[in-house]
Amino acid sequence: MTNSLGAPGRILVLGGGSDIGQAIAARFVEDGGVQQVVLAGRRPGDMAERFDARRPQDDAAGTAQVATVDYDATQPGAAAKAIAAASADGDVDLIVVAAGVLGTDEHNRLAHRATELLGINLVAAVEAVMEAIDRFEAQGHGRLVVLSSVAGLRVRGGLATYGASKAGLDAFCRAMQQRLAGAGVDLLIVRPGFVHSAMTDGLPPAPFATDPASVAADVAAAVAAGRAVVWSPPVLRWVFAILRNLPEPIWRRVSGR
Ligand SMILES: NC(=O)c1ccc[n+]([C@@H]2O[C@H](COP(=O)([O-])OP(=O)(O)OC[C@H]3O[C@@H](n4cnc5c(N)ncnc54)[C@H](OP(=O)(O)O)[C@@H]3O)[C@@H](O)[C@H]2O)c1
Question: In what order do the strands lie in the sheet with 94-97?
Answer without folding.
Answer: 65-70, 36-41, 10-14, 94-97, 142-147, 185-192, 229-232
